[in-house]
Amino acid sequence: MRLHTSNAKLFPAAGKPGPVSTEFRSAHLKLIILVLLAALLLAACGGSDAPASDAEEAPAAADTATPVTEPDPTDTPEPVPTDTPMPEPTDTPAPEPETTDTPEPEPEAAPAATAPPQEETAAESAESPGAGQTFVIVAEESEARYIIDEELLGQPKTVIGTTSAISGELTVDPANPAVSSIGPIRIEAGTFTTDSNRRDGAVRRFILQTSQFQFITFTATEYVGLPDAAAIGDEIQFEVTGDLTVRTITKPAIFIVTMQVVSESELRGSAATIIVRDDYELRIPQVPSVANVGEEFIVEFDFVARAQ
Prior knowledge:
Blueprint lengths: L6 H4 L11 H24 L8 H11 L57 H5 L6 E5 L5 E10 L2 E9 L2 E2 L1 E4 L8 E2 L2 E4 L8 H11 L7 E10 L10 E12 L2 E15 L2 E11 L13 E2 L4 E12 L1
Antiparallel strand pairs: 1-5, 1-13, 2-3, 2-12, 2-13, 4-7, 5-6, 7-8, 8-9, 9-10, 10-11, 11-13
């Protein structure tokens, strides 16, 4: 190492020794310090190549740490996000589901003990009409009639009016006739014919008024005299009480019935009653050739009925 120091300052003139100057002492001290620093550097450079310990490296790391950049005051500060307030909950309570009271099923009651079936008595059977087999009247083989007396041209005469326009049903059990039933029986009033067209026209227009009232009807309500049993070939007689309707007037009537059990599928019979004209307001028109018309007349049925 070179020291650029003036010889005149460092060393006094030969042959003239004297006290060391202050300036020389300062320079000499600096030189010593520099020599010591150089020795330390040489020692460091020539030392072991082993890596320094963690404790020795820590100060160096601290000395070489990247300095934190301070923000530039001229930079525009980024907006600080503001917290959007959450909506406050409302006080309206949420609707609670309605509870329906579902009735619990009631336990099924144990079936009541049933008594063994008992045979019907004759009286109970009579109170239950409609049992048995049904027979339908065959119009082509049946006939309804009215029979009335009159005086025609001064001579007595029996007038008979007939029709096959008859319909109805009978329910009969030959083994137990008490449960039999009849009716309703209907007759088409405008179809009666006699031996005189003029008489027939007068009956339809003035007496029965068939243009307004088409049917004569009988509905049975009570049976009297039915036997306990009937076999094929037997002929039985009994009374049937019921309601007879002519035009707008309904009156009770009693028919005497005779019926024969021809077979298991066929019945034949007849029925008859007596009617009072005034009861049904059946007025006879005034005709010079007709006089003394009877106040009573007979109504009859002949019927054939077959099982259905």
